[in-house]
């Protein structure tokens, strides 16, 4: 028997509960929110998720460079028509027309790894354990040569690497995975399912994400401005969907999706009075239909919120957020838009408006696509990694002084992606895999370190058997649940609520990773 959809369930689904109250007109609620002006919350905190859609090849983002590890890396990736192996630390960039002393190749294009120089050394503050299967006495690391701004953040202690993170139900070893004796997430190598599992703990079709659930739990701290708890600049994201909180979607032009502004005399279908009439109709309450009244309430709130944000973004604190610097594609040499930096500028504006709205807890979602590098990886991934590093450095700088206040300790920014990619190349790219490395940035981050066990690298060959890799895919040693719970705890989610959001968390001996 199907349960009828009652008014309460309709309200929850439409976002009418858990936001700004159910009865008062939105204009009155916004006035109440405005009374929070200049009440900058000293305990304000926000999470910003940077989702890399398509599956970032983390094996080329952070690389183990001790000789034993690097030799296996080189053997696996220095093959094919367009090798993707990065040059060793210390290798100088080779100009076009020059010959690399490392590979013996003449550089004919800026998309060749020889043109970028060697991996940039990362020196963790804590010695990362040498795993089984490697003869190294100590492990050393490097980051992609086109990610210099990220290295600067790492060295400054505001950026950390979290190693070999992946979707897991419980801890699993290579042998257990190959024997199928321990449960693991369904459809491991499916883009849609793994994007959803990363964001919501379940495959495609999941309705509620862990960012939205944190918003549900913490929204009461935002009072009359709780509508602005969960904000996306990248369209609808299941990560931000809560049971009561509804994500508010912003365009990077600081305009809402629908603008009807009669006050400026804007015409609608040639009529100067059209916008005001359209607003009146959309917000009309003459109907006796409960569904119609609920719809008009949600519409009124949406339009009012849009007007409020437009106003807030023109105020001095938000307006003072600098535009991202010009970005040059390191492969093509052409100036292009760094869309990730532009999204983070909008997030910075929203964070600056916190002093007016009075919100104390927020979750944000931004994204960058183009990571599905089955082909042309040298051209596509190198530019994308360069964009990520430049955008994160820009965001760090934008947060360093908002109205004279350093907000970097109040904001934690982290990366996520569908999965990493195969350790071997298919000739000019890589295919879908599992565990990968992620970056976490912020003033509260215990940066300059690598968290979790950095895995043994290299595919099974001869007598060598990699305990951390099944076929061409790393078996994760850190779960998304542990990664996320570490940030949820910092945001203010209680241990009991973490268990509700992440029911698999109790399967892991460590409930946190210590990077915050």
Explain what you see:
With 516 residues, the chain is of the alpha/beta class. The chain has one domain (7-58, 166-507). 31% of the residues lie in helices and 12% in strands. It contains 15 helices and 16 strands. Strands 1, 5, 6, 7, 10, 11, 12, 13 and 16 form a 9-stranded mixed beta sheet that branches. A 3-stranded antiparallel beta sheet has the order 2-4-3. A hairpin with a 2-residue loop joins strand 14 (469-470) and strand 15 (473-474). Helix 4 crosses helix 13 (377-399). The chain starts with 6 loop residues before the first helix and ends in a 15-residue tail after the last helix. Residues 1-41 and 260-265 have low confidence and may be disordered.
Short descriptors:
single chain; 516 residues; alpha/beta; nine-stranded mixed beta sheet; three-stranded antiparallel beta sheet; 15 helices; 12% strand; globular
Secondary structure topology:
Elements: H1 7-14, H2 26-34, E1 45-52, E2 62-64, H3 67-77, E3 120-122, E4 141-143, H4 148-155, E5 159-166, H5 174-179, H6 191-200, H7 210-218, E6 230-232, E7 248-249, H8 274-282, H9 290-314, H10 316-319, E8 327-328, E9 335-336, H11 339-352, H12 354-357, E10 361-368, H13 377-399, E11 411-417, E12 436-441, E13 450-451, E14 469-470, E15 473-474, E16 478-479, H14 480-491, H15 495-501
Parallel strand pairs: 1-10, 1-11, 5-13, 5-16, 6-7, 6-10
Antiparallel strand pairs: 2-4, 3-4, 5-12, 8-9, 11-12, 14-15
Helix pairs in contact: 1-9, 4-13, 11-13
